[in-house]
């Protein structure tokens, strides 16, 4: 499968407000591009990519909302996998046990994951809008 990154490193820098990620894109551009490629590959596997193909330019033209969703996924990927290293502290799971009673919850801002990348329902909704496969079993979304 030919994968075209949905955003560039420059676009990621423009679309994020995470200063640490902007610095990462500047200082480690090749690593940032690899991260974009990883996220783009996951998104490409879920969307109907042919709707973005422009025959006049022989290239893919992506809408702004999809670019924003990919930038958000990149930011979450960066935070969860690069900065926190996906260690147990990054999962922010809190458990309590008192006698026979136990309670566990996630202290995360993200209720969903997309291929194990924490995200929110807005990102999922954008990807679903372009997927053509809404409601199929192979969506990898987990509620926490």
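^ Assign residues to that structure.
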């Amino acid at each position: 499968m030919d994968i075209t990154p949905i955003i560039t490193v420059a676009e990621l820098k423009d679309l994020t407000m995470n200063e640490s990620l902007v610095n990462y894109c500047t200082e480690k551009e090749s690593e940032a591009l690899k991260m974009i490629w990883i996220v783009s590959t996951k998104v490409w596997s879920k969307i109907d990519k042919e709707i973005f193909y422009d025959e006049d330019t022989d290239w893919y033209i992506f809408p702004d909302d999809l670019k924003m969703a990919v930038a958000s996924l990149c930011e979450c990927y960066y935070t969860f996998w690069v900065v926190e290293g996906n260690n147990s502290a990054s999962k922010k799971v809190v458990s309590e046990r008192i006698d026979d009673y136990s309670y566990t919850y996630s202290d995360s801002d993200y209720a969903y994951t997309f291929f194990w990348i924490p995200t929110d329902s807005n990102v999922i909704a954008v990807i679903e809008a372009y997927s053509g496969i809404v409601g199929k079993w192979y969506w990898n979304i987990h509620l926490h």
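The first strand starts at residue 53 and ends at 54.
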